[in-house]
Write a structure and sequence with these properties.
Shape of chain B: globular
Largest sheet of chain A: 6 strands, mixed
Helix content of chain A: 40-55%
Order of helices and strands of chain B: HEEEHHEEHHHHHEHEEHHEEHHHHHE
Structural class of chain B: alpha+beta
Largest interface: A-B, 89 and 89 residues
Number of helices of chain B: 16
Distance between the termini of chain A: 53 Å
Number of strands of chain B: 11
Number of strands of chain A: 13
Largest sheet of chain B: 6 strands, mixed
Radius of gyration of chain A: 24 Å
Shape of chain A: globular
Radius of gyration of chain B: 24 Å
Oligomer: heterodimer
């Protein structure tokens, strides 16, 4: 067979990838950043992240960080929301302000030819947001729509219940948009307090890629970020994952049920993380060739897609996954998922699976570095995860060095089928909540 | 701090020559068209095969067959086992997938540049050697039904869009969903897939796009080696689909569903699309959509309905510029709490009438054009998106020259042309209006 011959010939050679040349720079004012100079296209991508995120919401102020980030581009300095948008459009700069459980991020792309004016605008958004009453009311309306929509979206319903059951009152257990009540009560003062809490220099990570030099970047960073607070409030405490194995069913109309499932996981800086990463790719990675993909989709046609993920957050860790299947077949999809979970823990993976997965992951790694913005985001993420400057160069060797014994030990320790909890939203047949 | 930026906006963004996209195109002897986009920043390539066939080319009663066949293309061929195609891509550190639309079906791999020949070898193999087996048909059909459940039937918003298209197109197959009607998907079988494959899959019905760290010479040599040996199918002709009859009256739909959290109003108008050598009307409509709905803070609908009147939490305007046959221009508005769908619909119509009356704000148009110029620079950072842009254009009746002329056509459009296009497009007797609402809402359609 031709296919076998291809694979046999090519498995011998590993693709040669170009290097990503990262410089670590420190601005005159002491701000650190990672930079890749890429002058071939006349623009720069800048990724700015702060550790903390929506988990820093003060007591009773749930939703403040999320609303604050959404309002940064809704008026700053002497510009109202419209004037700010007009200025940004005139410069054709692109700004994205986002918030997550453990971080907030500012992503910017700006042209070389009007870099200074674009950054002056971005600085205004970061340092002098206005939080005008009219803008607050309007954006609250958008967040309110999001909150109302979430309670009618089966995937969102399952996620919300899962995290509530797992983390209770910890911020991981509640919606970062807030509740309708907490959102309505937020004031401009709350938002300014949230801004000073969320963006502090002692928890800042910067990646920059594009048509810019180290010296230019240093000056820019001091100007953009130098005036921010030196340090922020304490980060939230670690939280124990509290959800035992079982099933929670939430009735919801529709032809299909959606299930979010998982159990406790592994920390990003655990020495076994690479083994767990390989293990998860074999079990439920994105491709159709994962065990879950093969058994649930390819063999049985029970779903359009199933996958699992390692989810190491800053204060808790999980292995989670999602599967959607018709109401008549979701029970079978869950049974197969549990069985595969138990089988890989018990039998381990095969040499052939492990080698194939290493080849894929090491080869596909370079595909992530396909554009200035994506590389800038990776650079910031690496710093946030406390990975070294040499990580990109050494990561593939570390993955390749993981022996099968280690993967199989981690499989036994990490994947516990009886601990899996499935939150199922739909009208599943033959499936009921356990208690 | 004060920004005097408007003065900057007008003369900016001359595209440096070094930054222009490097595109070469040529045709193989068997009629397969090839586009090469060079980007040497990383030793990676994307290889895409675009068939000039989509769901709008399906026979009646067989809706979904184009998409179902796309799934089945990952099964066995005379030379590869079922699943071996993707497994081989994976084993070479690559990623692959496929997509189906009304006008095209595409297959792509992203992989190290030195694996391009292997990708072509396998893609050429499945162009002619697909060997479908009855045993795999049923489970893959179940997968497609689950895909339909997930994409469409679990979302009342998607169901409304599907119903609105069905109302918009009464004679053309654009009215039938790409994924297919559920009752027809359930009946699709081996013979249907094979017939569709044999009729449409041939090198003279393909646009090959290769983008990344390659030269046109390398691509030509490999393409001739792998694809050039496949004979053309002489039965393949230019697509000529049935046209829509003249629409005489507005069509209105109300979809009520318990699962609706946020009601909204949507309207679509049948609209002309970009045609080869003839893109002005489409460019005017593209800019019209940017002016009406491009930005919450500065677009016409956003400023009036979200900012000034507070009647909407979201507004949008969308134009499908690329389409083989006539496309659509649509408007969406999500009302604020306490605002009815009738009120928001009336407010949208009133604002569009007022916009046509007062004309285009030249400063707004200049800002939008500035962003279009800059987009040419930003686009160079995403070679995958560039590859998709060319593949989609060339399977939808456009040429490489049309794609390259488009930014200049956009820049040349005047405010008067945009108003003239608006006057032609906003004709309620050429429209479908949809309301999505919760099942227990009292409001009725006018």
């Amino acid at each position: 067979m031709i296919g076998r011959i291809f694979a046999a010939l090519l498995a011998l050679t590993t693709p040669a990838w170009a290097e990503v040349n990262i410089q670590e720079i420190t601005s005159p004012g002491g701000i650190k950043a990672w930079l890749v100079e890429e002058p071939s296209i006349p623009f720069t991508a800048l990724e700015i992240r702060f550790r903390g995120g929506t988990s820093l919401d003060a007591p009773g102020k749930r939703g403040a960080t999320n609303l604050m980030m959404a309002l940064l581009e809704e008026g700053a300095a002497d510009m109202d929301a419209r004037a700010f948008a007009e200025a940004r459009e005139t410069l054709a700069a692109r700004f994205t302000f986002d918030s997550f459980d453990d971080s907030v991020s500012i992503s910017a792309e700006f042209l070389t030819e009007n870099r200074d004016a674009s950054l002056a605008l971005l600085r205004a958004a970061i340092q002098e947001p206005r939080f005008d009453e009219q803008a607050i009311t309007r954006v609250k309306g958008q967040v309110e729509t999001s909150i109302r929509s979430d309670v009618k979206d089966p995937d969102e319903i399952s996620s919300a219940r899962y995290f509530e059951l797992a983390f209770g009152d910890h911020p991981y257990g509640t919606n970062s948009d807030g509740t309708l009540e907490s959102l309505a009560a937020l004031t401009a003062e709350d938002l300014e307090a949230a801004r000073l809490a969320a963006m502090a220099k002692d928890r800042l990570f910067v990646g920059a890629v594009g048509d810019i030099t180290a010296d230019e970047l240093g000056v820019i960073l001091d100007d953009l970020l130098g005036a921010l607070p030196e340090s922020g409030p304490p980060l939230p405490p670690e939280v124990d994952y509290a959800l035992p194995g079982g099933v929670t069913v939430i009735e919801f109309e529709g032809p299909q049920s959606t299930a979010l499932f998982g159990h406790a996981g592994i920390e990003r800086d655990d020495p076994d993380y690479f083994a767990a990463f390989l293990l998860n790719e074999i079990l439920g990675g994105g491709g159709l060739e994962s065990r879950l993909g093969m058994e649930v989709r390819e063999e049985r046609g029970l779903t359009y897609g199933i996958s699992s993920f390692l989810l190491p957050k800053d204060h808790a860790e999980m292995v989670i996954g999602r599967v959607r299947s018709s109401n008549e077949t979701i029970g079978e999809a869950i049974d197969v998922t549990r069985a595969e979970w138990a089988r890989i823990a018990e039998e381990g993976v095969t040499e052939e699976e492990l080698n194939r997965t290493k080849t894929y992951l090491t080869g596909a790694y370079a595909l992530r570095f396909d554009g200035n913005s994506r590389i800038a985001s990776i650079l910031a993420g690496m710093q946030q995860s406390d990975l070294g400057l040499d990580y990109i160069a050494t990561r593939n060797d570390k993955l390749n060095a993981v022996p099968i014994e280690e993967v199989n030990r981690v499989a036994r320790e990490l994947l516990i089928a009886d601990d899996l909890h499935f939150v199922v939203v739909g009208q599943p047949e033959g499936l009921a909540s356990t208690n | 701090m004060r920004f005097s930026l408007l003065a900057l906006g007008l003369s900016l963004f001359a595209l440096p020559l070094s930054a222009a996209e490097r595109v070469t195109n040529f045709m193989l002897d068997n009629g397969m068209e090839v586009v090469v986009i060079e980007d040497n920043r990383a030793p990676v390539v994307v290889h895409m095969v675009w068939y000039k066939v989509g769901s709008a080319d399906e026979p009646e009663g067989k809706s979904g067959i184009a998409h179902y066949l796309e799934h089945l293309m990952f099964k066995a061929t005379d030379n590869l086992e079922s699943g071996e195609f993707s497994r081989t891509v994976t084993e070479n550190g690559g990623q692959d997938n496929a997509f189906t639309s009304y006008d095209y079906t595409g297959y792509f791999q992203r992989v190290a540049a030195d694996r391009l020949g292997l990708m072509m070898q396998m893609e050429a193999d499945r162009m002619v050697n697909l060997a479908l087996d009855e045993s795999e048909i049923a489970s893959e059909r179940s997968v497609v039904i689950e895909e339909r459940n997930q994409r469409t039937d679990s979302s009342p918003g998607s169901q409304l869009q599907e119903q609105m298209r069905a109302a918009q197109y009464q004679n053309h197959r654009y009215g039938v969903p790409i994924i297919g009607w559920r009752h027809e998907i359930e009946e699709l079988g081996l013979a249907d897939a094979v017939a569709f494959y044999e009729e449409h899959y041939a090198p003279n019905n393909v646009i090959l796009v290769v983008a990344g760290d390659v030269t046109p010479e390398e691509v030509r040599e490999l393409a001739e080696q792998h694809y050039g040996v496949i004979p053309a199918n002489p039965a393949i002709e230019e697509r000529a689909r049935p046209a829509e009859p003249r629409q005489l009256a507005e069509r209105r739909l109300v979809l009520r569903d318990n699962r609706v959290a946020q009601p909204y109003f949507s309207r679509s108008y049948l609209a002309p699309e970009r045609n080869a050598g003839d893109q002005r009307e489409a460019a005017a409509l593209e800019l019209l959509s940017n002016i009406l709905g491009g930005s919450g803070a500065t677009s016409v609908l956003g400023e009036t309905l979200e900012f000034d009147q507070g009647k909407a939490v979201f507004t949008g305007a969308y134009y499908t510029d690329q389409s083989l046959d006539p496309a659509s221009f649509s408007l969406v508005a999500v009302p604020s709490q306490g605002v009815s769908l009738q009120e928001i619909e009336d407010a949208v119509d009133a604002e569009i009438a007022a916009f046509i009356e007062r004309g285009v704000d030249q400063e707004q148009l200049d800002r939008i054009k500035a962003q279009w110029r800059a987009a040419q620079i930003y686009a160079l950072d995403d070679v995958n998106a560039l590859a998709r842009r060319y593949g989609a254009a060339l399977t939808q009746g456009l040429t490489v020259e049309d794609v390259q002329a488009w930014p200049d056509v956009i820049q040349s459009i005047t405010g008067d042309e945009i108003i003239a296009a608006a006057e032609r497009i906003f004709d309620r007797s050429n429209a479908v209006t949809g309301w999505l609402m919760a099942a227990d809402t009292q409001e009725v359609s006018q």
